[in-house]
């Protein structure tokens, strides 16, 4: 961290001291003295475009590097190609570029322990350790923690062979939920309405459809209620509530078709009123942080609680150890506070007493995806009409795009996140769909009912 105008001197000093966390803290305590940082953001999705957009608004951000970024992040920072599985090369890059804060977007590098390597090198990093990332990396790890800390969640069994798993579902009956234990790119969960579907999902896991992720299986009671997500910034001991959202996971209108990474989201989630948020914090998230600290794996970073709001109160469906995508886009649209000091406070273990300001407005994002997604899709089609989409209440966050010259091309499944703000769900929805209509991309598709539940509540 450096004073503006004394950059070289402080860069040198920082490099010399970078292994010394005590000295680092002294530097960081001086944020009110107009210091600036070089920041590295890792990831390439709509989530990372939204994070880059917000980070770049911070007076604390000097140079922003994004590895690898996408077609939308080019104007916000320097795009770099880094092999995030090669931790030494990421550390070396940080040293050469005097990176003072690393923000890790996706779960892959978190579960792989990139943050541990960076911390060992004395580099400040936002994101959990490998041990703490098990909250997303292993469903059985999280269920066992829920057992120990009496956190409300679905009843479950854990299996390492197909015969025992089959016997369990025959005994419990359907509906029932079958989950590959490890990371399976969002595809490892089957909510089985009947026994045959449950049995074939068990076969899929143990026959290797999800690789190593399916070698262990968690089978859960099917929860009934309304699903919503709540986010928390964490520093190992303190959890700061950081917004609520609802996602649209299925590919088709009316929640039909296969699961995707998310086809749209809105924030706030009306079902998570203040009283419910207080219950989520005290019944679910605070015991989680205590349990993780007791296990020697304190959680810092962002904790994303996937919840079912049942007639008995909130129950944990799953944890993710990163911002949701596209939920992050709507959170960043509503966040009024400077994001960078909050990320720093998580990284430094200094979150107690901090708060975040939110706009009262509603935000909604519609994902435009390549036809065929979440199955096979074509890459390389041209997109136009984006230049006209600007204004205070509208942002286009790119996901799977690439710029060839100034021309935007689609190179992924989820491609654009058309994000709008409004005084209520209805106005944000109208603005976002109006903008989608102006995008010229014949090879794309989108759901036409994002936000329908929230709009219906308003009527
Ligand atoms: P996950 O990958 O764990 O987020 O699960 C994908 C989706 O499956 C969730 O968003 C829920 O809609 C659904 N799901 C997971 N677990 C349960 C459960 N125990 N009861 C009902 N639905 C569930
Ligand atoms: N949108 C769901 C997720 O990020 O996991």
Question: Can you give a write-up of this model?
Answer:
The protein has 459 residues and is an alpha+beta fold. Among the domains are: 4-129, Rossmann fold, CATH 3.40.50; 161-215, Dna Ligase, domain 1 (2-Layer Sandwich), CATH 3.30.1490. Helices cover 33% and strands 28% of the residues. It has 15 helices and 24 strands. The protein has helices at 7-17, 21-28, 46-56, 87-96, 107-111, 114-120, 134-137, 139-149, 162-172, 195-206, 274-294, 327-334, 339-348, 425-438, 452-458; strands spanning 2-3, 35-43, 61-68, 78-79, 101-104, 125-126, 156-159, 176-180, 189-192, 217-221, 226-235, 239-247, 250-252, 256-259, 264-267, 300-310, 313-320, 362-370, 382-383, 394-398, 401-404, 407-410, 414-422, 444-445. Strands 11, 12, 15, 16, 17, 18, 20, 23 and 24 form a nine-stranded antiparallel β-sheet that branches. Strands 1, 2, 3, 4, 5 and 6 form a six-stranded mixed β-sheet that branches. Helix 9 (162-172) runs antiparallel to helix 10. The longest helix is centred in the middle third of the chain and has 21 residues, at 274-294. It is globular, with a radius of gyration of 22 Å. It starts with a strand and ends with a helix. Bound molecules: adenosine monophosphate and glycine. Adenosine monophosphate (AMP) binds next to strand 9 and strand 17.
